[in-house]
Design a protein that fits this description.
five-stranded mixed β-sheet, six-stranded antiparallel β-sheet, Immunoglobulin-like, 233 residues, 1 helix
Length: 233
């Protein structure tokens, strides 16, 4: 009886000690299970960026940091990420700062993963992103962002979004996105602007956003079609 009681205590202790406080979601609110792949696709030579939400599912505040590990790459490619108010250069693999997330809440900023291929060749890059409690690194969750660059699609099926002027003082012309949705994110992954495009050429008013670097994404039913970097003066 005593051995059985000790076994039950051990199992319960293992369960609670091994419970994860952190979960990662896409911007549509879908959870990305720990260990799973999250795929973003683009044409060869494109700049790719994806943003993900982080949630604290524990009963205590958690100070979340991120660690990057490149598992697979190809050609001349640069991989960086943004967290805790900073977009880090490609050679930095762990965020120096943390974001405090309250119990049951999402972080006020999103994780941004940015991939830039300098050559127009197809290939796959795999990047492990691990979120962990800075006070208890074993309390962590890990997903793999897969950047799938391909050249095998037909030219007629490709979407070529153009934005100009870039840099801009506020007015931004966008062409090539009829029927799609354009979204503008700031450097820490916060959605600043979203609009359905009802013609093949539209003029957007971005005068309300602050000066800085932004990501302009063209999406179709939640799928990222193309991403471009924008400088707001």
């Amino acid at each position: 009886m005593k051995k059985q009681l000790l076994f039950v205590i051990f199992v319960l202790a293992s369960f609670f000690l091994g419970a994860q406080s952190i979960e990662i979601y896409d911007l549509d609110g879908n959870i990305i299970p720990a260990g799973q792949n999250y795929v973003v696709k683009g044409n060869a030579g494109d700049f790719l960026a994806t943003y993900l939400k982080v949630k604290n599912v524990s009963e205590n505040p958690v100070e979340v940091k991120f660690r990057k590990q490149v598992l697979e790459t190809f050609g001349e490619i640069e991989i960086s990420f943004c967290w805790a108010g900073a977009c880090l250069p490609p050679h930095i693999n762990e965020s120096p700062g943390f974001v405090t997330i309250q119990p049951g809440e999402f972080s006020e900023e999103n994780l941004g993963v940015e991939i830039f291929s300098e050559t127009a060749e197809e290939g796959i890059a795999r990047i492990a992103m691990t979120a962990f409690d800075s006070n208890n690194p074993s309390d962590s969750t890990r997903i793999v962002v897969v950047a799938d660059y391909f050249t095998s699609i037909k030219e007629a099926d490709k979407v070529h979004m153009k934005i100009y002027p870039n840099p801009t003082n506020g007015e931004l012309n966008i062409t090539g996105g009829y029927g799609k949705t354009v979204k503008v994110f700031n450097a820490i992954g916060q959605l600043m602007f979203s609009q359905q495009l009802n013609s093949d050429q539209e003029l957007l008013d971005l005068s309300f956003i602050k000066s800085g670097i932004y990501m302009v994404q063209l999406t179709d039913n939640g799928k990222i079609i193309e991403t471009k970097k924008l400088i707001k003066q």
